[in-house]
Specification:
Blueprint: E1 10-18, H1 25-33, E2 40-41, E3 63-64, E4 72-73, H2 82-85, H3 90-105, E5 118-124, H4 129-135, H5 141-147, H6 149-161, E6 167-169, H7 176-190, E7 195-202, H8 208-216, E8 240-248, H9 249-254, E9 261-270, H10 283-297, E10 306-308, H11 317-329, E11 339-342, H12 345-348, H13 355-369, E12 371-372, E13 392-394, E14 399-400, E15 409-415, E16 420-427, E17 444-450, H14 453-468, H15 473-482, E18 489-495, H16 498-511, E19 519-523, E20 531-536, H17 548-553, H18 555-572, H19 576-581, H20 589-609, E21 616-619, H21 623-630, H22 636-653, E22 658-663, H23 667-674, E23 681-688, E24 691-697, H24 698-710, E25 715-717, H25 733-739, E26 752-754, E27 759-761, H26 768-776, H27 781-789, E28 795-799, H28 807-817, E29 821-825, H29 833-846, H30 853-856, E30 873-874, H31 902-917, H32 937-950, H33 957-960, H34 966-981
Parallel strand pairs: 5-6, 5-7, 10-11, 10-15, 11-13, 20-21, 20-28, 21-26, 28-29
Antiparallel strand pairs: 1-8, 1-9, 2-3, 4-30, 7-8, 9-16, 12-14, 15-16, 17-18, 18-19, 22-24, 22-25, 23-24, 26-27
Helix pairs in contact: 7-13, 10-11, 14-16, 18-20, 18-22, 20-21, 20-22, 21-22, 25-26, 27-28, 31-32, 31-34
Keywords: Phosphopantetheine, Phosphoprotein, Transferase
Domain Ketosynthase family 3 (KS3): 7-428
InterPro entries: Ac_transferase_dom_sf, ACP-like_sf, Acyl_transferase_dom, Acyl_Trfase/lysoPLipase, Ketoacyl_synth_AS, Ketoacyl_synth_C, Ketoacyl_synth_N, Malonyl_transacylase_ACP-bd
Length: 982
């Protein structure tokens, strides 16, 4: 590995492109290695040269390399409104897509760059799109910004990704894009930035420059770029878009990146007057550039095996470039050892402002594959390439890299008509270290995401095809989770092998449906992650055989369960591990409750190890003991003391006339049912507005329950022989306070909502008195659950239990309260535990949680994944009328906002937003952040004015540009109007 002057080489870790005949790097390499010339003719939908009379018809052959479609754009993906999209230069639109693809190719989740010192350098010059916009009368601010590509586009990328590093456009005619790479490398070497995004675009939308170049006689009369051939009389204009991701090699190796090639050094010079004029190449200027670049790289010119020349195929440029290369590369080179030279322009034409990036991509691929593609159309080489001995030779046929015993070293040149010269020195990346294959897992979770339902289905099909090749699943699942952006529409498939994962993906790609177990789909269309609540139920979820599967297959669970088991054994003389692995069923309360407590603590540890951290904890009766341990208020030893000593007291007091019954009644109906038996029976638990538990004297409970059963009300006796959460436990007060007097609770690191006191507790309050009240007072679980959802933030409840006890109760509260929430069960009775827990994780991901995939797959390595499937729509000036907001109709009367529900008000606000953004009404989701709909500061001003006019409300613009959704806005407006009316 070269270490240029002690510097860390710059690694090319990601790239993407749109070039003639190539939609991506893979297709580009096919074009090169198959020796194809993909030059075609100018599409009629661009401009028609036949209508331009009086031009030099002898050179106007209409040849060029063109991209297939530059009118389409996935505006919704990038949060660009249709109003803005049609005003956005296609160069910006295509480069947005290509930049996103390059980041994905590098395995860098876009969201991971927010707030980082990442730089953006771009090369875009005017495409003439402004002329088309002006032709249809679009003179507004968005049109001006959309056409001002050079300085605006890098800012657009930096804003979109929340980047804090340098952000600028550079310009040096056809040397522009390689100059951007040179500037990026200098910033990386100086420490000015940690990561660099370099991109460029060159689209031909209007004919002016084409005719100007034709008149100047610099375009090829044959319609071919003939680099190095005496017949070359000009170049062929082509379009291109490309982006590369650069970072220091040491970081790339540490991060496990795939490195295409490394940049060792570079040089940027100007010919001065060595060429005689600004547009004429200068031999001495070229020599100086090359020597400066190799000196900067710490490389001897004789070590260079290949140079990707600027090589446009012009009469003046080619001989000068080749002579300069021969003069410098012969230094120290043995006779007969020639450096191969070529030009990608012979395949795809001259992409002008992107030519340097196109040459860089070709060279990086050549270095990576140690294969030099052929340069086409060479019949009679220039005299400078003929004998006597020359140091350079045209690569006229595809061939392996010369000097197989040495690292591949190459150069890339790019020259501008302004006289600016750039040369980069590349080398192959060091060989990756051998990795030990990961041990097979019993089950895998493969996550996918998109911003559009159709894109997600298409991605599912692509991943299914990838799985047909039986890739290493540990690497695939790691890369899909840890090295890809996680977007709004989500899918996770669960299975033991590639075939099962592929089958599930194909089911989804064909139907768009999921089964909730092996195939879990969902969406998270909110600005923030959902609130995660760990829920710890009370007694009743135990079953014979629980925990055995996880003890054998999940190391984190096993470790924490053994830790809890040691604490229980110190208290009661037995190990819950032995109980779980034993053959006899658990029947005694001091066996059931400590074992369930240990299961709950261990399950929570697994979820947290997987990166699902709770925002809040809720415990139900004895479940609060595990919640207190997970939250950090009680140590494992103290948690075991509470669970074991209390359970032992309950066992000693058992055999009394106490009982508990679960009934399908709300709290008030339950009190009515108790009626005259209020002295012997009470409402011990309120699980939901439809479910309670009655507790008290067994005989009195029978008299309460009998008429309910006759009425068809669901009633089930709880399998206990005591009456918790009732006066019957009062005799245990003194003994419990005494046995737990040594507890030392602490402030927890996760909030706990007490279902005893009905409020958040900090942790220090969880002393002996609290644990008696936890046993004596009613469990107000429904209130605790509802208080979590009152804020309107989506909530994911995860039940820490060997079988769901509270799922239906939570779902009742979610549905009845109209809240945005969901419930996940960790395990289910008699089902394979590792499989069920994996499916639970898949559901959490689908609901918007962010698992720590790198911890789930610590042995995983980065592998390439299918590219995103863009859902493009046509945006062009001829469709500008449809992207214009309609003129507002006169306001007849303003609605009474205080009289509207939040949903009705949200619908009214959404209609105004749709008009301002020129978005179809059905595409405006009330739960989507306004910024995701494309609302920027300019459109926010219009939106504010429309609300002021039509609704009579005045909303600060800053309130429209944050993470707020239309539903949030409607809630604020209604609350303000109600308060005003009062």
């Amino acid at each position: 590995m070269h270490k240029s002057n002690g510097r860390d080489p710059v690694a090319i870790v990601g790239a993407s492109c749109r070039l003639p005949g190539a939609q991506d790097l893979g297709q580009l390499w096919e074009v090169l290695t198959e020796g194809r010339d993909v030059i075609g003719t100018i599409p009629h939908d661009r401009f028609d040269i036949e209508t331009n009379h009086g031009r030099r018809r002898d050179v106007l052959r209409g040849a060029g390399g063109y991209l297939d479609d530059i009118t389409g754009f996935d505006a919704r993906f990038f949060g660009v409104s249709p109003f803005e999209a049609v005003r956005l230069d296609p160069q910006q639109r295509v480069l947005l897509e290509v930049t996103w693809e390059a980041l994905a190719d590098a395995g860098i989740p876009a969201e991971s760059l927010a707030g980082t010192n990442t730089a953006v350098y771009t090369s875009l010059l005017s495409s003439g799109y402004w002329d088309l916009l002006r032709g249809v009368g679009l003179y507004d601010m968005h049109a001006a910004l959309g056409a001002a590509v050079s300085g605006i586009f890098p800012g657009r990328i930096s804003t979109m990704l929340d980047l804090r590093g340098p952000s600028m456009g550079v310009e040096a005619a056809c040397a522009t894009s390689l100059l951007a790479v040179h500037v990026a490398c200098r910033a990386l070497w100086s420490g000015e930035t940690d990561l660099a995004i370099v991109g460029g675009a060159n689209l031909q939308i209007v004919p002016d420059l084409y005719f100007s170049l034709a008149d100047a006689g610099v375009l090829s009369s044959s319609g071919k770029c003939m680099f190095g051939d005496v017949r070359g009389d000009g170049y062929v204009r082509s379009e291109g878009v490309a982006s590369v991701i650069l970072k220091p090699l040491s970081r790339a190796l540490r991060d496990g990146d795939r490195v295409y090639a490394t940049i060792l050094g570079s040089s940027c010079t100007h010919d001065g007057r060595t060429g005689g004029s600004m547009v004429a190449p200068g031999l001495e200027g070229h020599r100086q550039m090359l020597r400066s670049a190799y000196l900067d790289a710490g490389v001897s010119p004789c070590d260079v095996g290949y140079v990707e020349a600027h090589g446009p195929g012009t009469r003046a440029g080619d001989p000068t470039e080749l002579a300069a290369l021969d003069a410098v590369l012969r230094e120290g080179r043995e006779e007969g050892d020639r450096c191969l030279v070529g030009s990608v322009k012979s395949n795809i034409g001259h992409t002008e402002f992107v030519a340097g990036l196109a040459g860089l991509l070709k060279t990086a691929l050549a270095v990576r594959h140690r294969t030099i593609p052929a340069t086409l159309h060479v019949e009679e080489p220039h005299e400078v390439l003929r004998e006597p001995y020359r140091a350079v030779e045209l690569a006229t046929g595809i061939q392996e890299w010369p000097r197989p015993d040495r690292p591949a070293v190459a150069g890339v040149s790019s020259f501008g008509m302004s006289g600016t010269n750039i040369h980069l020195v590349l080398s192959e990346a060091p060989a990756a270290e051998e990795r030990t294959a990961a041990a097979p897992r019993p089950v895998y979770v493969l996550p996918l995401s998109a911003r559009d339902p159709q894109a997600l289905r298409e991605l599912a099909a692509d991943y299914a095809d990838l799985l047909d090749g039986e890739p290493e699943l540990e690497d695939l699942c790691f890369s899909a989770g840890a090295r890809r952006s996680q977007l709004d529409r989500r899918l996770a498939v669960v299975g033991p092998d590639a075939a099962s994962l592929a089958a599930s993906l194909r089911v989804f790609s064909e139907s768009g449906l999921d089964d909730g177990r092996s195939l879990v789909a969902g969406e998270n269309r909110v600005a923030r992650q959902p609130r995660v609540v760990f829920v710890f139920p009370g007694q009743g979820a135990q079953w014979a055989g629980m925990g055995r599967d996880l003890l054998a297959r999940e190391p984190v669970f096993a470790w924490h369960l053994h830790e809890c088991a040691k604490a229980v054994e110190a208290e009661l003389g037995y190990s819950p591990v032995d109980v779980l692995l034993g053959e006899h069923p658990m029947t005694a309360v001091d066996e059931i409750q400590p074992t369930l407590w240990a299961m709950q603590v261990a399950l929570a540890a697994v979820w947290r190890e997987w990166g699902i951290e709770p925002d809040l904890l809720i415990g139900h009766s004895m479940g609060e003991i595990a919640a207190a341990v997970v939250g950090g208020s009680l140590s494992v030893a103290d948690g075991a003391a509470v669970a074991c000593r209390r359970a032992r007291l309950l066992r000693e007091a058992g055999g009394s006339d106490g009982a508990m019954w679960a009934v399908a009644l709300g709290e008030q109906d339950a009190y009515q049912a108790i009626g005259e038996h209020a002295g012997q029976v009470c409402v011990g638990v309120v699980n939901s507005r439809y479910a309670t538990v009655l507790s008290g004297e067994a005989a009195a409970l029978e008299r309460v329950v009998e008429p309910l059963r006759r009425r068809g009300v669901f009633c089930r006796r709880v399998d206990v022989d005591y009456a918790s959460h009732a006066p019957q436990v009062e005799p245990l007060r003194d003994a419990l306070l005494d046995t737990l007097s040594g507890l030392k609770p602490a402030r927890g690191d996760v909030p706990l909502h007490s279902s005893v006191w009905g409020r958040l507790v900090e942790g220090e309050e969880l002393d002996a008195r609290y644990w008696f009240e936890n046993l004596r007072l009613p469990v107000r679980f429904a209130d605790a659950a509802q208080s979590v959802m009152d804020g309107g933030r989506p909530t994911v409840f995860i039940e820490m239990s060997p079988h769901p006890l509270l799922q239906s109760c939570l779902e009742d509260e979610i549905q009845a309260g109209g809240a945005r929430g969901a419930v996940i069960s960790s395990l289910e009775r008699a089902e394979p535990e590792a499989d069920v827990l994996a499916a639970a994780l898949a559901k959490a991901f689908a609901l918007g949680c962010r698992p720590a995939w790198e911890r789930l797959h610590p042995d995983g390595g980065f592998v390439p994944l299918p590219a995103y499937r863009w859902q493009r729509r046509r945006f062009w000036p001829d469709s500008a009328r449809s992207a214009q907001p309609p003129e507002p109709s006169p306001v007849v009367s303003r609605p009474d906002l205080a009289g509207l529900s939040e949903a009705e008000l949200a619908a009214s606000v959404a209609r105004l937003a749709a008009q301002v953004l020129a978005v179809p009404g059905h595409e405006v989701g009330v739960d989507v952040p306004l910024a995701h709909l494309g609302l920027d500061s300019v459109l926010a001003t219009r939106f504010r004015d429309r609300m002021r006019r039509d609704l009579g409300v005045d909303v600060p613009i800053r309130n429209l540009l944050g993470p707020s959704t239309l539903l949030d806005l409607a809630t604020e407006l209604r609350a303000a109007r109600v308060a005003g009316a009062a």
